[in-house]
Amino acid sequence: MTTQEQFDAFAAELARELGTHCRTAPLPAEDTSRLIVDDDGRALRLRQRDSRHPERLRVYAALPDESEVSAPSIGVTASSTRHVAREIVRRLYPLHAEAVQHAAEITALRQAEEDARRSAVEAVTRSLPGSVVQELHRRTRIEWQRVTGPQGEYGPARVDLLWAVVGPCGKSVRIEVSSHPDAVVPMLAAFARAHEGS
């Protein structure tokens, strides 16, 4: 297999050997490669990584999201499509199934984290009407401000600022407050009283 056309023909024959209505598609890559997908949506990336050794193939289990779980792969000699198919079924498919299971567990964990964080954010924003919410990587930042001035007289306005960062699991909230001491001290005292004995 020294040309893309020969490689494509090998991949098509390999897809037939794997069965389950496998089909092939091109892969945008610099080296000779092909995608093989079956009816279950399971995908493989077939690559010839070194043109000096065209008989050496690398087969990767393609995953929907490879940012959290790296795709397993095997090296195999392209002695025949039957041999490559047998090695894929024997060695790569079990690794592929494990990787898909691991990816599903991570996705479920991330979703649970997001749900818990969203609940905590909603509780904080209910207490701070008009606050602005900004999503960060696995955290949420909430900013609230209030501008007040002296009652019935001219003078500089006072700005009360509060920033809250809700952690990944929604189990912690970090608060920063910027205000005049006569506003902050009663707030801290109320917080301390609310948590006495807990």
Please tell me about this protein's structure.
There is one protein chain. The longest helix is centred in the middle third of the chain and has 47 residues, at 81-127. The chain has helices at residues 4-18, 81-127, 181-194, and strands at residues 23-25, 32-37, 43-48, 56-62, 73-77, 132-136, 139-148, 158-166, 173-178. The protein is built from 3 helices and 9 strands. β8 and β9 form a beta hairpin. α1 crosses α2 (81-127). 38% of the residues lie in helices and 29% in strands. The strands form 2 sheets. Strands 1-2-3-4-5 form a 5-stranded antiparallel β-sheet, covered by helices on one side. The chain has a 4-stranded antiparallel β-sheet with strand order 6-7-8-9, with helices on one face. With 198 residues, it is an alpha+beta fold. The mean pLDDT is 86.
